[in-house]
Amino acid sequence: MDEGSMRACCRVDTDTADQLGMVLLHLATREPDRISSMVLVSTAQRLPHQTRAIARGMTMGTLTGRARELWQSCAVRGENQMRGLVDRVRSLFENNTDDINFSAARLSTIRARTLIVHGDRDRLFPVEIPFEMYRGIPNSELWIVPGGDHIPIRGDREPEFLRVTREFLNRQP
User: Fold this and answer.
1) Angle at which helices 49-56 and 79-95 pack, to 10 degrees?
2) H helices of 42-123, where?
3) d(CA 160, CA 143)
4) Do residues 119 and 129 lie in contact, with contact meaning Cβ atoms separated by under 8 Å?
5) Higher per-residue confidence, 117 vs 69
């Protein structure tokens, strides 16, 4: 992956920011010299019980609002494809507990300057998650967004997020 590709990763829909963060964790631990800095938004290094319970309980009927819109945008072939995707994700969480599991030792191999952004009201990934990442990733900074839910960078918070992110990325190590 070249620099242009890495920069492109920074331009994503906020609905997938948490998933992109998990991809970045994989890249940063497997090829630590390839990423110099990264911003992780509502990302988790492990999936806690409450997240797994939410995923295991997911059905077409429980998807509402933006979550439903996101799933619909992925299911380009319609309702049956969307139902299949929801069923597949739910089945992934039924028995698998080793899918996302970055130990403190593995996080400590990350060399990239890292800004961790997380809402203090995130019901999917509790606030202990970003603190664990902050303690595990050397050269990391933590921004807990007061009153922020999952992916707390939308709407009125976007200008502040952009300012903080620019300052972090432009700062010399």
Assistant:
1) 140
2) 49-56, 65-74, 79-95, 104-107
3) 11
4) no
5) 117
Site of tokens 């797994």: 52
pLDDT of residue 92 exceeding 90, the answer is: no
Mean pLDDT score, 85-99: 75
Q: Note whether 111 and 162 are same-domain residues.
A: yes
Whether 129 and 48 have beta carbons less than 8 Å apart is answered as: yes
> At which residue do the structure tokens 């110099």 appear?
36
Residue 7 has a pLDDT of 42
Q: What is the pLDDT of residue 16?
A: 65
Clarify whether residues 91 and 104 are in a common domain: no
Regarding whether 122 and 151 lie in a shared domain, the answer is: yes
- The domain of 60 spans 52-95
* Burial letters 131-148, b for 16+ CB under 10 A, else e: ebbbebbeebebbbbeeb
Distance (Å, rounded) from C-alpha 114 to C-alpha 98?
24
DSSP 109-129: T--SEEEEEEETT-SSS-THH
